[in-house]
Amino acid sequence: MINSETSLSTVIRERRSVRKYNPNFKISREEILDILKEAALSPSSSNLQPWKFLVIQDEETKKELRMIANNQEQVETSSAVIAVLGDREMYRNAEKVYRGSFEAGYMDETTMNRMIENTNKLYPSAPVGIRENIASFDAGLVSMQLMLIARARGYDTVPMGGFNKQQFIERFNIDARYMPVLLLSLGKAAAPGHPTTRLSIEEIVEFI
User: Fold this and answer.
1) Are the beta carbons of 116 and 98 closer than 8 angstroms?
2) How many domains does the chain have?
3) Which of 82, 172, 193, 194 is least buried, going by the fewest C-beta atoms within 10 A?
């Protein structure tokens, strides 16, 4: 496990997309919940937190999921696969989110009521495509945070967008409110992820 003094920069530099996992290494449900609790501190549009996580650890279920995920080995051999779902109806969280902030002393009651009212006016009337874009963007933020937290704890991950989303919805009976965004394998590497190169920063940055 990376010690507490390890810098964020080191965690970022050491993270790799790992596809070979030790199938005998298991991460407890309690620790996975703790990782997700930290990951869920990620920012989101209007703090509506438009995500949900389906954690798949059962071995037979992972075998089924492997077929849905284009036979990717890491789906079966990692300790868990975390499906990150985007919430198309994130506005339904408004009451709970803003009342929680009020009760914690982060906003006054007038602000709470205004935020709830504004959210319930704006978001439901927005086209579904826009709400899906918001949910996908925020799901990406929480997923990246999850991967960095896992690496800081000495674990490995790989995000996967290559899976049959319709089959996933049907197999796991996903409510129409949610859309599968990505699968994320979590475990202990049996072989290191290979290093990759990046475009030079001069090619992709322009100061104006």
Assistant:
1) yes
2) 1
3) 194
The span from the CA of 174 to the CA of 8, in Å, is 35
Tell me whether residue 157 is in a domain. yes
CB atoms within 10 A of CB 160: 19
Residue range 32-78, pLDDT digits in tens: 999 999 999 999 999 999 999 999 999 999 999 999 999 999 999 99
Whose CA is closest to 27, among 187, 197, 206, 146? 187
3 located within any domain: no
Range of the domain at 161: 8-204
- Quick check: is 111 in a domain? yes
Single out the residue of 97, 201, 88 nearest to residue 137, CA to CA.
88
- 170 domain-assigned: yes
Copy the structure tokens of residue 18: 């790992």
User: Angle at the Cα of 78 (from 155 to 81), degrees rounded to 5?
Assistant: 95
CATH number for position 40: 3.40.109.10
152-173 confidence digits (pLDDT tens): 999 999 999 999 999 999 999 9
In which element (H, E) is residue 78 found? none
pTM of the model: 0.93
